[in-house]
Specification:
The chain has helices at 23-32, 34-37, 44-57, 61-82, 103-115, 145-165, 171-177, 188-191, 213-220, 228-237, 281-291, 324-341, 357-365, 387-392, 396-405, 423-438, 450-457, 510-524, 537-541, 560-574, and strands at residues 3-6, 16-19, 95-101, 121-123, 133-138, 200-205, 249-257, 262-274, 299-305, 315-317, 346-353, 369-379, 413-417, 462-469, 483-489, 493-501, 529-534, 546-556. Strands 6, 7, 8, 9, 10, 11, 12, 13, 14, 15, 16, 17 and 18 form a 13-stranded mixed β-sheet that branches. The protein has a three-stranded antiparallel β-sheet with strand order 3-5-4. The chain contains 20 helices and 18 strands.
């Protein structure tokens, strides 16, 4: 046996010790293990400290000092308990951790403790989960009993004040640390000022049918395919399915002020999603190998703003209002309560512009972690009349490329807007969709249910664009579609939604032809904007689409899965 130990904690110095059973083993490690054990020479002061500490450990004095320290630890636990301060674990080790909840409360409290003469550390993400910030301090024999009592009283005095100043309550702490009901109250004299009287109220609905269509569409109906009709379609598709990933629960939120005026609105879905959804394709490909035997490997139940099939601004709030942050916090509090009630593993606020610094700082201060999303692509203006006019507005380089890759092959295709699909056609479209789904891991999601294709093909708000090659080009015994595109039509927008491709006809640039036909379809219907969705930025930019970097903000209750994926990402980068 070889014993390796650190001198940093119990010895209160630094460095480490190796104990070998024989001189020969020690010589081998010194000779051959240098690259693995060498980090730098011990500084003389640290070495002197280690020697002095070792000498103490070899005398009876060590027991006296340990008893003295244990007495101070128990005193600290006793005072914090009497003051009903949220000490997260009443263990008999020197390090104490007092929960405060959000990072903003932690920053505030640390400053107040410093003003009282007490210097503490802030335990914050990534050392702890995003909403589990706390005050961390260590008791040593250098502290007197008066020091310990004074710090405990300072925390008990200042924590309620910090919570109030940040617009928070102790409920943050109870929720984040799952504290027992018996520990869920401070002493009355400590929390007399923490009473949150809100001038807002929140309306929750589990179906869009419970919200008047004019109300919803005025707030969020012009932001993609999640107008009232689009959400009704999604609700009908993603329920009563066999697989858990195809059953979504919808939760709608409308915040009103004390005059019954709507001041915020959004919606979430509770869905089983892949934790590598936004990871690199290389990492997702590696994980998918594991999912062949375990389809739910590295997956979580998420509460997600919007849905896995929608893009755009899923939150309506008047950012010009002086009270928008107060309204936003009230909305988040309501969402947090449902996040706990529904026992979801992760919470996603998504589809915010990456350059929105104000929302970034606001959500990070509330314990959210920022992650990059794929860019979203859109054509924001259809201010042209003919396809010739459309090409003229593009830069020369893009225009020439599209002439070679799109216009040149346009007459090779038969284009049809399908109104009365047969079951056989829908079944084949689904195989084309599966081709794309297998080859697209940049946004890694579960395979969509076949039910979606049947329901969408009957919906009047869906255009189904089908591309076939003409008989002189497609020599197969049965001439089948080479591309299919489902497009949602809102009042002003055209939203390409789901597509399928036959990759054996790449030489005819089938995907680009499908994009072009979607643009022509939007113009024909006098739409104002095309939501082109995520990924394939370069292809969509050829047609004049604007690519906008997007971000999401997440909170997870257990970061193990993300840590595993992060490690895989690091290993791939090193390879």
């Amino acid at each position: 046996m070889i014993l390796a130990t650190s001198l940093a904690k119990g010895f209160a110095s630094g460095g480490g010790v190796f104990v070998f059973p024989t001189e020969e083993w020690c010589w081998k490690v010194r000779t051959w293990g240098g690259p693995l054990t060498y980090s730098g020479p011990q500084q003389p002061a640290t070495l002197g400290c280690s020697i002095a500490s070792a000498k103490i450990h070899l005398t009876e004095d060590v027991y006296i000092k340990q008893d003295e320290l244990m007495s101070k630890i128990k005193l600290c636990n006793k005072i914090l308990t009497e003051l009903e301060v949220p000490l997260i674990a009443e263990s008999e080790v020197p390090i104490r951790f007092v929960g405060v909840g959000l990072p903003t409360v932690g920053y505030n409290l640390v400053n107040k403790l410093m003003q009282d003469g007490y210097y503490t550390n802030l335990g914050i993400y990534p050392a702890v989960p995003e909403t589990c910030t706390g005050i961390r301090f260590t008791i040593t024999n250098n502290h007197t009993e008066d020091d310990i009592v004074g710090l405990c009283k300072s925390i008990a005095k200042n924590l309620p004040i910090a919570l109030k100043e940040e617009g928070r309550t102790v409920e943050d702490i109870y929720r984040a640390f799952k504290m027992l009901r018996s520990k869920r109250t401070f002493k009355q004299n400590v929390v007399s000022d923490i009473v949150q009287n809100s001038k807002y109220k929140i309306q929750r609905e589990s179906s869009i049918k419970n919200i008047p269509q004019p109300v919803w569409d005025k707030l969020l109906g012009d932001n993609g395919m999640f107008d009232w009709n689009g959400l009704q379609l999604l609700e009908s598709i993603f329920q009563n399915n066999k697989k858990p990933e195809n059953n979504w629960a919808f939760q709608y939120y409308i915040v009103k002020d004390d005059h019954d005026k709507i001041v915020a609105a959004t919606f979430f879905t509770i869905v089983l999603s892949k934790d590598d959804m936004l990871s690199s394709a290389e990492v997702s490909n590696q994980i998918e190998l594991q999912r062949k035997n375990n389809p739910y490997y590295l997956t979580s139940r998420c509460m997600m703003m919007g849905t896995l099939l929608t893009e755009g601004s899923h939150l309506w709030i008047d950012r010009t209002s002086d009270n928008w942050k107060e309204i936003m916090m009230y909305l988040i509090d309501g969402i947090w309560k449902d996040h706990e009630k529904m026992e979801t593993d992760a919470l996603y606020f998504r589809d915010f512009k990456a350059d929105d610094v104000e929302i970034r700082d606001y959500l990070i201060d509330r314990g959210f972690l920022k992650i990059d999303m794929p860019n979203t692509n859109s054509i924001d203006s259809l201010n042209w009349n003919t396809s010739t006019d459309f090409f003229k507005q593009l830069p020369q380089k893009k225009r020439n490329r599209l002439k070679r890759e799109v216009i040149r092959f346009q007459d090779f295709f038969e284009i049809r807007i399908v109104n009365d699909a047969t079951d056989n056609e829908i079944e084949y479209w689904y195989t084309l969709y599966q081709n794309v789904q297998r080859n697209s891991l940049k946004v890694n999601t579960f395979l969509l249910p076949k039910k979606l294709f049947y329901e969408a093909s009957k919906n009047k708000n869906i255009d189904i664009i089908e591309l076939k090659l003409k008989p002189e080009i497609d020599k197969r015994a049965q001439r089948l579609p080479v591309a299919i595109g489902f497009v949602y039509k809102s009042q002003n927008n055209y939203c390409p939604w789901i597509l399928g491709l036959d990759y054996s006809f790449k030489e005819y640039h089938v995907y680009r032809q499908l994009l072009f036909q979607a643009i022509l379809g939007a113009k024909q219907l006098n739409k104002h904007k095309i939501y082109f969705g995520f990924t394939a930025d370069e292809e969509k930019e050829k047609f004049g689409a604007k690519s906008t970097p997007m971000t999401a903000y997440i909170q997870v209750k257990d970061s193990f899965n993300l840590s595993v994926i992060g490690l895989m990402q690091t290993n791939k980068a090193q390879d």
